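Progress narrative, work stream C.
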Amino acid sequence: MNKYQVTVFFSVDEEFMNLVPKHRGVISDLILRGVIDSYAISAEAGRGWITMNGKDKSDIREQLERSPLYSYFELEIDQLMVYDSQIYRFPKMVLN
């Protein structure tokens, strides 16, 4: 499995907003299955970032095609060489 950073560009209209609940269901399923590590959408621009696991770029694209919003998306998919975050660290020890 490889790790990818997907940058999603989109425009919002009324139909887009109506499809968001179904889209969130797809995203939640992909998170539960370990396909998506993180998912973030900008509050200021029509842009989002998704960190995903997959065999190759076509696998990543196929997973995102499940979204009812896919036709709104312009994607940039980059394979990551290094990915580090707080979740991969040991928990901080708290002494009571």
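Work stream C, second folded protein:
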Amino acid sequence: MDHKLSISLVEDKIRCLPWRDRVNQEKEQMKNTMYFEFSAPLKVTKTKTKDFILNLNNYRNAHYQVLNKTKVEFCNYMDERYPDEYEKAPGQVKTTYTVFAASKRKFDLPNVCSIVQKYFEDWMTHKGILATDDVTVITKCEYAYGGIDIDDPRVDITVEWEK
């Protein structure tokens, strides 16, 4: 009976090894990963009295001059908030967009993140953090819902790359 028990324990340890290897591999990748973190707004100023909410529904219906103005406003906001020079991200990067909403109202995550992604990646290219914002540089993009933050609705953005 003791013999069968010891074999069972050995088999369980063998089955657990791939999981441990994966965890160790993830820890190693974390050591070799560099990243920048940013926060972007969910809306920008359109006129003195109106805001432009950054989502795909507004974007597709807006005039091209309004879109250009809102992109400039977004870039100005980011420049004021992040005035420092950042080192250029070498090679390929992965971006993660986490939305913190202002209310419990339901929304489509890609509707918000797609426009913030477009404006943000253009800003990073203009700032010199990315060489270009095409698929040769940005190889992976993730969207996530972070919850509700009534005081500071925003999109938190993480840009990661390997050393």
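The longest helix spans residues 2-31. No further action is required on this item.
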